[in-house]
Specification:
The chain is built from one helix and 36 strands. With about 425 residues, the chain is an all-beta fold.
Amino acid sequence: MHNGYIHILNATSNRIDSVDIAETLDDITVTPDGETVYAAKRLGGSRIVAHNTRTGATTEFATGNWPALVFSETLIGTTWVYAVNMLESSVSFVRAGTNQIAKTLSLGTAEPRSDAIVSGALDTRSNVLYLTIPELRTMVVVNTAQQTVSRTMTIPRYVYDDTKDKAVGRIQLATAPDLNRVFLLFVSQKILLAYNTTTQQWDSVNLGTTMRYPQNVGNFESNLLVYDERGQRLFVGNQILNPMTLALQGQLQQGHRFLGYNSSGTLAYSLTSRGDTLTMIEHNPTTLQVQATRALYVAEDSFTPVFYLDLPRDAFFISSWNHPLLRHFDLRQTATLATSVQGPAQADIGLSIAPNPASELITVKVILPRNEHISLKLFNVLGQEIAQIFDELLSAGEYSRSFDISGLPVVSGMYALQLQTPYSTLNTIPLQVLR
């Protein structure tokens, strides 16, 4: 397995916060106030990791056996975290902040024993948590306000395949509270179901015969399904469907997986992987025409993305199921101030600056594990390039360059030093300038 560390770059203090989370990071959620990131890890001790984004404090606690999913919502002034304990077939209701378990609710089903990982979706408008257990062909509906199971049903048309469905995301869910619908995607069968929460009736469509099922989705196969309430569009990878008729409406250009919008509603985002580079696409929020692309980081050799878009704060958190390195991006910055920092077992490009904060001369240190053509640029918070420190082909090794920022047209504030290749952004760190 990989090194098993979360690394978070604090863009304010320029400090890297790390926590050992063992072999996997299965799911991520953020509390509605944006204060705490919660991550579920089944392996390495069945723990929940809580990282406070304000203080940098990180703690771990146990909820149950194999917590595979985490969700969060605020009810009547109390913020809750729901941990789905797969091998116990239960949900733990945890008070955020104190991380104390108020109740562990049995789902009333048999305990699954395969690696067909449970999936779920939380409807915060109706306070309902939908969970599917592929091995049992069962969907469980949990009333989170009452902390009770309100309904258990057999999933129609789904056939569990022991050779194909022992994986993450073989059944995917998305809720459409404005349409009173819940959507289920069966990846192996290429079937899409729509459950009407009012009539409790099911509609279905075979995506393999009625539309071109998403091709070349690469690392996003386990997380294709998303409902866009603002545009009333249902996305299956890059395919756009009418959420009422399930008919094909169009195709998302360049992106593999639709994410959502920025807090002002002026941009829509999607993700794609180009080779080993994870890239974010910026779209017109209405037409979905591509406006810009942004390389986020060079990914591991093989990765299954686990991510969360914190829309009110324009924050994006992403990790990988089998490579638990958490990255935190501020989407308001064209030059991202918080980006990838590799763990100690990973040989990657290193970048550091001193002093920081600085007013005059800074020293930039770059560590290259391989020959690379790199450029180092300074950006302001608007993403405008202020200066280029160097742009050249360098051999593997350590390099130090001094650079005088006193003559630059900059004022006091936060800036970003960004290390790039001709194909991607490798590392970005914040620089506080004092005048």
